[in-house]
Amino acid sequence: MKNIDVAVVGAGPAGLSAAIEAAKYGVKTLVIDENRQPGGQLFKQIHKFFGSQAQMAGIRGYEIGKKLLASAQMHHVQMHLNTQVIGIDETNTLAVIKDHHYSEIKARKIILCCGAAEKTLAFPGWTLPGIMGAGAAQTLVNIHRVLPGEKILMVGSGNVGLIVTYHFLQAGANVKAVIDAAHSIKGYGVHAAKIKRAGIPIMLGCTINRAIGKKQVEKAELIRVDERFNKIPSTEIQMDVDTICLAVGLSPSTELARMAGCKLYYDAKLGGYIPLINQDMQTTLEDIYAAGDMTGIEEASIAMEEGRIAGISCAVGLGYCPDTATSQRVVQNIRLNLSQLRSYKPN
Amino acid sequence: MGTGMRFNGCPSKNELASAPGVPSLEDLNRKPLAVIECIEPIPCNPCEHACPFQAITVGDPITNCPVLDPEKCTGCGTCIACCPGLAIFVIDMNFTAATALVTMPYELYPLPQEGAEIDCLGRGGNTVAKGRIHTVKTSEKFDKTALVSIELSKEFAMDVRNIRMC
Amino acid sequence: MRVVNHPILGEDPKKRKITIYIDNKPVEAMEGDTIASALWANGIKACRYTPKNQEPRGIFCCIGRCNDCIMTVDGIPNIRSCITPVKDGMRIKTQKGNGTWEELK
Question: The complex's ipTM?
Answer without folding.
Answer: 0.97
